[in-house]
Specification:
Length: 278
């Protein structure tokens, strides 16, 4: 089987995991070891968290990471797992639609078969969201690049209306329709877990809906009953892991004890897990 055939098979398998009522659950990873741990726990696919990945590479989140650095990290992840991998590419690591196409080609070269492409803007003085037409062009460029490579890349159009306080259900549905028409395969709406809102989004979006979860959100079962097709932990696992590091550091430095470290992944087990990824 050629590399393209393997990518195509993986992409098709990833598409098939998006089932309303039986959602794909993604525990987002940020490096090779977290990806292996997630896979070993039984995950059907691995998705990266752009925030966790940026932090691990010494950068802040919010479109500040160099594309080459980001995709080198994605390549390290795809090299150690057998399940499909989706890469969070923020706003495409590019100033224009043509550059988004270049990024998608690099994503495929890194071995990933899905992307999150967001519509938020982070430049000083810019609005909270990229203009609808411009973002649709970027989605279309991602689709065209994948199609030219003959890989059915899953393009997950992230809409930050709720997250950035830039609109509600009506504005989200308008953007979702435009992005799906431009070639997106699914829609990711972080920032709301309200059941009535999620249900309205499920009913109004003609494609798989992805919801971001964390402490206080409805359970996977509850979201499945609403018709959600994909559930992501986002940066919350990375945040929890780094909070553990801070607690352990403070305990060691302040009291000289080690109770925070109780229950950690044992050295031999983790080392063996990574040895099987060699």
């Amino acid at each position: 089987m050629t590399d393209i055939e393997r990518l195509r098979a993986s992409a098709l398998a990833f598409h098939a995991l998006h089932m309303p009522g039986r959602p794909l659950v993604l525990v987002n990873a940020w490096d090779a070891v977290t990806a292996r741990v997630v896979e070993e726990a039984g995950a059907a696919a691995v998705a990266t968290t752009s925030a966790g990945l940026a932090w691990a590479l010494g950068a802040a989140d919010g479109d500040r990471l160099d594309r080459d650095d980001a995709l080198a990290a994605v390549a390290r992840i795809t090299a150690v797992v057998r399940v499909p991998v989706s890469a969070d590419i923020e706003n495409g690591y590019a100033p224009d639609a043509e550059g988004v196409g270049d990024t998608v080609r690099a994503v495929l070269a890194a071995g990933a078969v899905g992307v999150n492409l967001e519509d938020a803007l982070y430049e000083e003085g810019a609005g909270p969201l990229r203009p609808l037409k411009e973002q649709a062009e970027r989605v279309a460029a991602a689709r065209a690049a994948a199609d030219a490579a003959q890989v059915p890349l899953f393009v997950n159009a992230r809409i930050d209306t709720f997250l950035r306080g830039a609109g509600g259900v009506e504005e989200t549905l308008e953007r979702a329709a435009a992005f799906l028409a431009a070639g997106a395969d699914g829609v990711f709406v972080p920032g709301t877990v309200d059941p009535a809102t999620v249900k309205a989004l499920v009913e109004g979006i003609d494609g798989p809906l992805n919801i971001l979860v964390g402490p206080g959100a409805p359970s996977v079962e509850e979201l499945a009953e609403l018709g959600v097709a994909r559930i992501s932990a986002g940066s919350s696992v990375a945040s929890a892991a780094h909070a553990l590091v801070r607690r352990a550091a403070r305990e060691l430095l302040d009291t000289g004890t080690y109770e925070t470290l109780t229950g950690g992944f044992d050295y031999a087990g983790l080392n063996a897990l990574m040895a099987r990824a060699d």
